[in-house]
Amino acid sequence: MPVSAKICGLSTEDTLGAAIAGGASHVGFVFFAPSPRDVDPARAAALVAMVPDHVRAVGVFVDPDDAAVERAVSVAGIDTLQLHKTAPSRVAALRARFGIETWAAVAVKTRADLDAARSYAGAADRILYDAKTPDGAALPGGMGVRFDWSLLDGFRHPLPWALSGGLDAGNVAEAVRRTGATLVDVSSGVESAPGVKDVDKIAAFLQSVAQL
């Protein structure tokens, strides 16, 4: 089955262009002030306007209030929600209110962490398995941390899913072979510094995915 890719945390025209030109199926925009990848809705709107119809524009949030999502949907024009640290009931409520595809991130460090995925059945459209960041970390992702992919062995996924956490051009092929992922998500793995995307790294990552 073909593998598709999401480039997350985009904030400039040139890096967004590199993601689109390289064949990304999804592009992500972060709406979370503590993140070095945070974009305001007006800036995001200018970028989303560049996104062709066949590419999904994903808004990334950490347990947001309705107003934050409303601004991203109505002003920026995102068409997919990606929710971190958000309870299943809240995920379901946002999905129902805005009526767009909704992903729930599940932070993974141990096999027991995967159990949380089951609670999103009926609440979300997709699970994003991401590496659990260290205790006390300000960010829920985008820190280059990966989890043990063997934890997914034999796990019965309750929903369609995507793989994130510490991916880059050098390990994405191994990650896909090991887990069977058909959608991979990268952020820090295509950066030259936190929040600074690199067009060459984006191109290399997407070329690695295209060869799978």
UniProtKB/TrEMBL annotation:
In its keyword annotation, does this UniProt entry include Isomerase?
yes
Q: Does the keyword Chloroplast apply?
A: no
Record field: transmembrane? none
EC numbers: 5.3.1.24
Q: Where is the N-(5'phosphoribosyl) anthranilate isomerase (PRAI) domain?
A: 5-207
Tell me the keywords, alphabetical order: Amino-acid biosynthesis, Aromatic amino acid biosynthesis, Isomerase, Tryptophan biosynthesis
Q: Which domain of life is it from?
A: Bacteria
Per the record, what are the reactions this protein catalyses? N-(5-phospho-beta-D-ribosyl)anthranilate = 1-(2-carboxyphenylamino)-1-deoxy-D-ribulose 5-phosphate
Instruction: Give the enzyme class.
Output: isomerase
Classification via InterPro entries: Aldolase_TIM, PRAI_dom, RibuloseP-bd_barrel, TrpF_fam
The family line of this record is: Belongs to the TrpF family.
Name assigned to this protein: N-(5'-phosphoribosyl)anthranilate isomerase
Per the UniProt entry, what species is this protein from, by scientific name? Sphingomonas donggukensis
What does UniProt list as this organism's lineage? Bacteria, Pseudomonadati, Pseudomonadota, Alphaproteobacteria, Sphingomonadales
Gene behind this protein: trpF
